[in-house]
Design brief:
single chain, 6-stranded parallel sheet, alpha/beta, elongated
């Protein structure tokens, strides 16, 4: 168990950490995120005793960090830094074996047990084939995996990772992080992340640092919110739930060029998540976007709310009411273009299509990203299909991709054939 109580740290007059307190232990992968200069790396340096706190105390198993000898501490804790100079011309195997020093000592020879431990460490990090190569003759990504293997060979109870996937390609990043996640079931793992989506996917809890303090701490879904990310990083993002893992997925939102609206009004009729990317793209392009009618438990409704897009809504499991259809008709009177996703149509939402039949808009774009063959989508006895066919016959533009839909909107608003 590691515990920090009101830890503060400064470099002269420059304060780096302020009143940082948290606990972590075996069975947890704790992520640390925050903008550059927020104190992430310094926090790991304080925990690993590279730099002493100005105030507060750090405990390992209820014992003050300063009470450990260097050898005792190296048996408890291993560190994977951001960058490492290999120094002398050692082989990869020799560097990984250095992780066994706290257990072997200066004058004992390595045992079969030690050799098996480093074999597993190199196998876990995918560097067994580099065993006899010089660390000066391998790539930066390979060296990073060597340093991780050395830390694993140390068999620590606490593992500190400072951007562990730096210099690694995508496949290597996923392999290493999966290994760290599995390892965290047995020990405490604390890792600094720049990639918020990696932190969200792999970490059990996250600490968000801002202004050298803990701005938020907790489960990924509780920490990685729009407001917290805007406060810490100064950017607007959309936070959605991964449908397979339930973890948050963060996507930066692009502001219109020069911050100016394009002036066109676009209404999006969507549902079931088929309109989320469209809403993001149209909003980023600078159009004045509205949406609906949508159920408040629909993922497209949540996307519209996160983007600040006005949306006509209905309670869950309710059909489109006459009031909502009237509101939709009023919005369409002020709308240049309607973009419609094909979606699934039933008695509850076909009202959206009925309103379109008499709408006086400049153009309609139908985004159909699915192949219709063999896929049931019309549950209205053919009424929805008939309306869509009628819209097509009257000039609605069919497209397959979100980018094509946005391009079609631009052509209609600009009056380009």
């Amino acid at each position: 168990m590691i515990e920090l109580r009101d830890v503060e740290l400064d470099y002269g007059a420059r304060v780096v950490l302020k009143q940082v307190s948290f606990m972590s232990g075996r069975g947890e992968f704790l992520g640390v995120i925050g903008p550059n200069g927020s104190g992430k790396t310094t926090l790991l340096k304080a925990i690993s005793r590279i730099v002493p706190p100005s105030n507060g105390i750090i405990l390992i198993n209820d014992q003050a960090l300063g009470n450990f000898s260097s050898l005792e501490l190296s048996r408890e804790m291993a560190v994977v830094p951001q960058a490492t100079d290999p120094g002398f011309d050692f082989t990869v195997r020799d560097v990984v074996m250095m992780g066994r020093y706290p257990h072997i000592g200066s004058f004992r020879r390595e045992r079969d047990e030690d050799r098996e431990i480093i074999r597993k460490a190199m196998d876990t990090t995918g560097i067994t084939h580099l065993s006899d190569r010089s660390v000066r003759a391998i790539s930066g990504g390979e060296l990073q995996r060597v340093i991780i293997a050395r830390a694993l060979a140390q068999q620590p109870r606490i593992l500190l990772l400072d951007e562990p996937t730096a210099h690694l390609d995508l496949g290597q990043q996923m392999s290493i992080l999966h290994a760290m996640k599995e390892l965290s079931r047995q020990i405490a793992v604390i890792g600094v992340f720049h990639d918020l989506n990696y932190a969200a996917h792999f970490c059990d809890r996250i600490i968000l640092l801002h202004d050298h303090r803990i701005l938020a701490m907790g489960r990924p879904e509780d920490v990685l919110t729009q407001d917290a990310i805007r406060t810490a990083f100064g950017i607007d993002v959309m936070v959605r739930k991964n449908p397979f893992t339930g973890r948050p997925v963060i996507s930066p939102l692009t502001k219109p060029e020069n911050g100016r609206s394009k002036g066109g009004r676009v209404h999006v009729i969507c549902g079931g998540g088929e309109g989320s990317d469209l809403l993001v793209g149209l909003s980023a392009a600078g159009y004045q976007v509205t949406a609906g009618v949508l159920s408040v438990n629909d993922s497209d409704y949540r996307t519209a709310r996160m983007l600040g897009i006005p949306c006509i809504s209905e309670p869950p499991f309710s059909p489109v009411s006459a009031g909502s259809m009237g509101e939709l008709a009023l919005i369409l009177d002020e709308t240049n273009v309607v973009v419609l996703t094909r979606g699934l149509w039933g008695a509850g939402n076909i009202g959206n299509l009925h309103v379109l039949e008499s709408a006086k808009v400049r153009g309609i774009v139908i985004l159909d990203s699915h192949a219709r063959d063999g896929e049931e989508w019309d549950f209205t006895g053919g009424k929805a299909a008939a309306i869509l066919d009628g819209l097509g016959a009257n000039g609605a533009i069919p497209v397959r991709e979100v980018s094509s839909a946005i391009a079609a909107v631009a052509r209609i608003i600009e009056g380009v054939p």
